[in-house]
Amino acid sequence: MQHFKTLSAYLDYLELPRPEHPMLSVFSAVGEGFLPCPKASSPPITNDCYSISLKKIVKGDLNYGRTRYDFTNGALIFIAPRQVLQWDSSVVFEQKGFSINFHEDFLKGTELAHQVKKYGFFSYSANEALHLSPKEEKQMEAIVESIDIEYHNNHDEFSKDIIISQLSTLFKYANRFYERQFINRKELSNDLLEQFNQQLEDYFDSGQLQESGIPSIEQIANQLSVSQRYLSDTLKKETGKTSTEHLQLYLIDEAKNILLNPSKSVAEVAYELGFEYPPYFSRLFKKKEGLSPTEYREQYKI
């Protein structure tokens, strides 16, 4: 897989104009202009840059997870360094909006270098983009316009600090708008929880638990066609519990049924549920239920 270490090399590959700054590139078509067109398709590639792009779809189908949504409003996409990128010519975007690309070293020595890692949307897949309302789109475009003006000014000792500050503001607004999206897509959140539990049920019923042990959240997320971070954030927003907590609760529910079989020891129950260490199973059970597996068994003993 081809990897691009510099911003210039990455933009050259995309067949886009070279950046005015070695670590920062801003393309904006907020006004009357148009965004330059990148190459129509690419095999999987990676790079060391962050990208933030606002696009509008005019042809082709895009899905949000497994559900199709209206993409006529702006779709704001966040890409972190070393995420695998791939696209083909089936989807056509309107050449309006904006695209900001910057090398990860551009943030070095700034507070934003630490903050950016806390923003979950940089871990989301491209089909988990932020879908902006027209009002939100205007707010984002105003911030990018300020960044674009500073980017094209003669650079001085204040330029980087000003741009970093504006990027920080853009990320904070994005965080706010994602919160709104999670709330507005409550139906999707409920559906995702149902699919999550169904995946676990299918996994248990297929006998994979005995063969491969407890499934990872990444495995489940891949089956649901969403990223691990997005799955956890969505479930947390809707239910107050992360994907790991939901997995643990499912295991505990299964354990309750098996524990009522007096012929099996607690250790056997733990191994049957995919736990390598029975003491960990016992601690988890007590943490979730307030009593040990043995105490639970005694409580329901006939």
TrEMBL record:
InterPro entries: Homeodomain-like_sf, HTH_AraC, Tscrpt_reg_AraC-type_HTH. GO terms for molecular function: DNA-binding transcription factor activity; sequence-specific DNA binding. Residues 198-299 form the HTH araC/xylS-type domain. Pfam families: HTH_18. Keywords: DNA-binding, Transcription, Transcription regulation. SMART domains: HTH_ARAC (SM00342). This is AraC family transcriptional regulator. It comes from Echinicola strongylocentroti.
